[in-house]
Amino acid sequence: MWQSVGLTLLVIVATLVCGLLFMFIGWYVVWQLFLSKFKFLRELVGDASTPQAETQPSEAKSERTASAPARNRPRTSRQRVASPESTS
């Protein structure tokens, strides 16, 4: 009788260990392939390392900074919108 109880407990413990091991390996693989790319998730986990994509300046950032002065050009009378302060 004690052998069947011991065997049952061993099966339950082995099942839990295998399930947890599978979950941790799955989490690691998903983290390495996908989740580590998100800065928000890295901050939540406390990972201080930065991926290469953030350390190298991208072309999109340089294009944004180059086009920033163009946004501040004066508008024509058609493009101007009356502010609520000037209407009162």
In terms of per-residue confidence, which ranges show pLDDT below 50 for 5 or more consecutive residues?
none
Strand content: under 5%
Number of helices: 5
> How far apart are the first and last residues' alpha carbons, in Å?
91 Å
Backbone shape = rod-shaped
How much helical structure, as a percent, in the residues?
Answer: 55-70%
Q: Which value, in Å, is the CA radius of gyration?
A: 29 Å
Q: Mean pLDDT, nearest integer?
A: 75
Region (Disordered): 48-88
Transmembrane segments: 6-30
Biased composition (Polar residues): 49-59
Protein name: Small integral membrane protein 13
Write the layout of secondary structure elements.
Blueprint: H1 2-33, H2 39-45, H3 52-55, H4 59-71, H5 84-87
Summarize, please.
Residues 49-59 have a biased composition (Polar residues). With 88 residues, this protein is mostly helical. The chain has helices spanning 2-33, 39-45, 52-55, 59-71, 84-87.
Q: How would you describe this protein?
A:
The chain is mainly α and 88 residues long. It is built from 5 helices and no strands. The longest helix has 32 residues, at 2-33. It is rod-shaped and about 95 Å long. The relative contact order is 0.05. The mean pLDDT is 75.
Main attributes?
rod-shaped, mainly alpha, 5 helices, 68% helix, 88 residues
